[in-house]
Amino acid sequence: MKNKKRMLALAGVLPLLVLLSGCASKQAPITAHSTGFWDHYIVWNVVRAIQGLSHVFGDRYGWGIIIFTIIVRIVILPLMIVQIRSTRKTMELQPKLKELQMMYPGKDVESRQALAAAQQRLYSEAGVNPMAGCLPLVVQMPVLFALYQAIYRSDVLKSGTFLWTQLGHRDPYFILPILAALFTYLTSKLSMMSQPESNTMTTTMTYGMPIMIFVMALNFSSALVLYWVVSNAFSALQTLLFNNPYKIRAEREAKERAKKEHAKKIAKAKRKAYKKR
């Protein structure tokens, strides 16, 4: 359920980026003289941060964006770890949640209210916050929007180049959009593999989200797509380090084997007790 909410929230962000693309292009260029809290304190400081990091690499703004992205992901890493732990706990609660859904099928208002209250008690007893999965996304959104506007409204950053691309223009060879979609798929696939069971919603989003990212990236500047590539690659690595699906599967299979062995021992003990009678 949490993964569904997170994927739906992410899907909702993408159309908003389309709106921002039109709004940012119509706004005045961002400079040190820009006024307003958002422009002066947020967007301008993102521009300054990228410029400062770029100076270390000989004013190569692509590298500045890469380092800026990595710093952002490291800063929010504690939140991501909280999310991962919360997700693992929620997975463990799935059998009990299904039992509650059987008890309260939700066919009327009273049943739905009882189900919601029972689920809340279960989450509280297990120390799980159902909304923790959305927190990292909410934290990243202002940064992503600020970076988007920083690129579109900064003449310096728009004029920068990185490898074969000009940061203010689309990738002419579609390499960055393909990489963005590939790392999006890899992250989603790894996350889905750690689930005890999949459903139509998670499967659809796992394959549909990369397509959405690819289509969106075709129309965005190379700078923003570069941010997506680095951010999603970081997410894939983070998943392998802190939520490795292969390790989770092995642990789950070991627990299942242990349960079966325990059940066999109990059954064997009962048979022996019965024979003694």
Automatic annotation (TrEMBL):
Keywords: Cell membrane, Chaperone, Lipoprotein, Membrane, Palmitate, Protein transport, Signal, Transmembrane, Transmembrane helix, Transport
Region ranges (Disordered): 256-277
Keyword hit for Chaperone: yes
GO molecular function: membrane insertase activity
Domain Membrane insertase YidC/Oxa/ALB C-terminal: 61-243
Residues passing through the membrane, by range: 61-82, 172-188, 209-230
Localization in the cell: Cell membrane
Membrane topology: Multi-pass membrane protein
GO CC term (a single one): plasma membrane
Protein family according to the UniProt entry: Belongs to the OXA1/ALB3/YidC family. Type 2 subfamily.
Annotated protein name in UniProt: Membrane protein insertase YidC
Name of the gene this protein is made from: yidC
